[in-house]
Amino acid sequence: MKVGLVSGGRDAEDVLDTIVAVETPEGIQLELRPAGLTARGYALIVDWGIRLAALYSVGTITSVMGGVGMGVWLVLLFAAEWLYPVCFELTAAGATPGKRLFNLRVVMDNGLPVTPAAALTRNLLRSADFLPFAYGFAIVSLLVRSDNKRLGDLAAGTLVVSTARPDIGADDSDVPALAPARGLSLPQQAAVIGLAGRAGRLTPERLNELATIAASVSGDSGSSGPLVTRRVLGVARWALGHRP
Question: Could you give the CA distance from residue 66 to residue 63 in angstroms, rounded to a whole number?
């Protein structure tokens, strides 16, 4: 099995986006798109909300049961903290409710479903990821690594990937060609064309983010959004010879 990083770029060397390419023993090429900090943060907040709601509801009921009720609540607290993510990640969806809401999934590095040992390892190490406070180590790891792994993922050999099937809302013929606002070198033209070629495989948010990086080609530096994205894709059509 072969695993590698595949990237596109602003110029020939600059990175626009990163995917993890996995080749299975059967020769099947898989492309895994590591989930970013924002999506994972939102998913974490949703999962926290679910657990807090469950703890509050059970706590209200068991508060009248004295010591027995407190014991039940403490058992639930342990399960919510340590067993909640493990149990959900071992389901067919491979994700907690928060992750499913944001189209995320936990898989092994080879793209296969996460194993019980890996799920337990990555979640036990959340205590290390939390250090020194507010998931500081996890945030730094996600920001500096191209595969967006936190410490738990590194130890367990897992990836959190995006499962969204993006739709940019327009096919190639729907985007009008647009002359670039400045002269483009051949590598720059290739980078913009490469971005357009991958547009259908990116989430709308990621496509807009990458188009913002390249917005100077359409004269939209400092701006972002779907309109800027369409204009950058229009420059790509111009570079391909579709002149107005």
Answer: 6
